[in-house]
Design brief:
It is a single chain. The chain is an alpha/beta fold. Helix content is 34%, strand content 25%. The chain is built from eight helices and ten strands. The protein is globular, with a radius of gyration of 16 Å. The model has no long low-confidence stretch (mean pLDDT 96). Bound molecules: S-adenosylmethionine (SAM). The site of S-adenosylmethionine has 21 residues, from helix 3 and strand 4.
């Protein structure tokens, strides 16, 4: 499959998906989006101050959102323990990350996780685990894992293609599975403010609020458990 490369407004690279015909990031700035639409509204810096943080990155793509979370958390508390579980179904886009330098600190750790056969990286302080497969299936593994270990997530990055192009991930059923693995008060952040998406988040039990407005675009959405 051919992924068309695009340089976004902040000079970081994104691609156009050959399957969905949509860009993987905002064209105004892929790196900026990772910090402003995900790490900031999910309060990664504040959470990191508590000493440990667990993040679910749904639709990992090039891993910019996870990398931005690593940079934000470690800047706030260099000793913070960080655990990231990432869901992605396209091996092709994971491999594209290996040649990139998006200007996000610790992106090399994301690349290490992608390169490893078992799609994991661990160094005693940081754990990254990428689950390859349809997120509607892999979320079931996450539910089991959270039940057994009694360790729900502090934050969720929710970044599928648009509800129009990828409706299967914006359903009340999928949001409800995601809700099950979150701590009370944890925040899910997404770039979309589509009415249908917000309705399904509410059906799944989230309190829905406007997310940040980045560069005068419409706001994103936050779902609070
Ligand atoms: C908008 S891009 C995400 C960009 C990514 N967050 C980043 O920082 O690079 C959406 C991603 O969702 C993935 N995807 C689409 N359908 C999926 C599914 N059913 N399960 C898991 N991943 C899926 C696509 O392969 C793509 O990488």
């Amino acid at each position: 499959m051919k992924y068309k490369k695009i340089i976004t407004g902040d000079k970081s690279v994104t691609f156009i998906s050959p399957k969905y015909g949509e860009a993987y990031h905002s064209l105004t700035g892929a790196r900026e989006e990772a910090f402003k639409k995900y790490s900031e509204p999910c309060r990664i810096a504040e959470l990191a101050k508590k000493g440990s943080i667990k993040i679910l990155d749904i639709c990992f793509g090039l891993g910019y959102n996870s990398a931005a979370a690593l940079e934000t958390a470690l800047k706030s508390n260099p000793k913070c323990r960080i655990e990231i579980f990432a869901l992605e179904n396209d091996e092709g886009i994971l491999k594209k990350s290996l040649d990139l330098k998006p200007g996000i600190k610790h992106y090399d750790l994301i690349k290490k996780a992608i390169k490893n056969k078992d799609r994991r990286y661990e160094n005693g302080q940081i754990k990254i685990r990428i689950l390859l497969g349809d997120a509607r299936e892999t979320i079931k593994e996450i539910i089991k894992n959270v039940k057994i270990n009694k360790n729900p997530f502090d934050a969720v990055f929710f970044d599928p293609f648009s509800p129009r192009k990828c409706p299967e991930l914006w359903t009340a059923e999928f949001f409800s599975d995601v809700n099950k693995v979150m701590k009370k008060g944890a925040i899910l952040a997404t770039y979309s403010c589509a009415r249908s998406a917000r309705k399904n988040m509410e059906k799944a039990g989230f309190i829905v609020k406007d997310g940040p407005v980045v560069r005068r675009w419409s706001p994103g959405t936050l779902g609070i458990k």
